[in-house]
Design brief:
By secondary structure, the chain is α+β, with helices and mostly antiparallel strands. Helices cover 66% and strands 8% of the residues.
Length: 317
Amino acid sequence: MKGVLWLAWRQQRAMILTGAALLAACAAWVAYRRSEMTRLIDQYGWTPCPGWNGGCESLATFQILDGNTTAIRVLGTAGLLLPAVIGVFWGAPLIGRELETGTFKLALTQGIGPRRWFAARFGLAALFAVLASAVVAALVAWWWLPVANTLDGLYWHDAPVYNATGPAPVACALFGLAAGTLAGLLVPRVLPAMGAALAAIGTAMVFTTYFRRSWIDPETRITPGMTPKRPVGSAWSTGEFGYLTPDGREHSISTVCQTSGEELRQCMAEHGFVARYHKVYPSGDFWTFQWIDAALYLGAAAALVALTLLVLRRRTA
């Protein structure tokens, strides 16, 4: 390693080594806690039963879930916040501090162009950001999977799991770094740039969360007449329940027949309803949502990097 890459490593090695140490400690903690969980599972001969609908309620179930759900939630929340941490504490100072102190001028006088200088610094940071987020995502998924989608535990659509596993959080970490880097370039001082980066990353994450259900259509589960409804299981309920007429028109339960038993039967007959419906996203939609989110984050990151290069070229001309 030499030249501009060596300089980038020298300036970022403290952050990289500290991050690597934290990841190693986290991996050791997860390995220990998961081994304790699997020991209990083997001891009780426990078989998980995904879904809210019961069937495996036991002392073993609650001991296993109560002993791990909170800790998995904590790790998942850390994974959820990781893109913001990367963008604020690594991305914003990455270029911003060099511009604020004027030290970038020294590097550019050594025959190194601004693009090459930026590529070395950003590329090294991006590599570690991707690796760190991928490791955290793998740890969360590894710990969670034996008890996934079980009773009152964590489900695939819960924020600490969804936003910390799969390709989306890895892409989001790269987006966070790109957003922070651009903020450091556009905002004159590093501290305000860190605030701007946090606002930008937070806004993007809220946007994807708020509009996620519009990416794909939910599955409509239809139950003829008074037949017992299909259990929700591990699906993500949209909260849309209602009734169907013979021609297929939907009528929300919020406006009619908010009853049960014989009263429900009578109400359905009075309105001519022949079936009930419930809209859900099956657990298999996890990957569809994840790849859509990942594509959005990667596209945004690419656009921000391109804009950063354009602005940097003008600033250093």
